[in-house]
Target: DUF1311 domain-containing protein
Amino acid sequence: MALALTLSLSAPFGGNEARAASFDCSASGLNANEKTICDNRQLNDDDVKMATMYTMLKGLFAMGVSGNMADDQKAWLKTREACGTDVSCIEKAYEVRIGQLQKLYDGIDKPL
Model:
């Protein structure tokens, strides 16, 4: 819970609208899935949240876990891309991935 709250507060305010967290919305060659994310504010926000969580968590772990995270991320991207332009499918994909990342964070031993 704390990770999600912290990340939601750290999202950019009024920044460059042409950029999602994990890819450049103004780049040529975007697939239909990426264009849909760029055209939908909520999906764009979900992308920012997921990418921020992923990047932060990846930096906390040694190569083994970090490598597994990268493999999981690649598999998740294929799942998201399979949604095509279906907004509800993309939303669900982000919900699942953010939940997985939150669970990983919640499993970290933290000092009191």
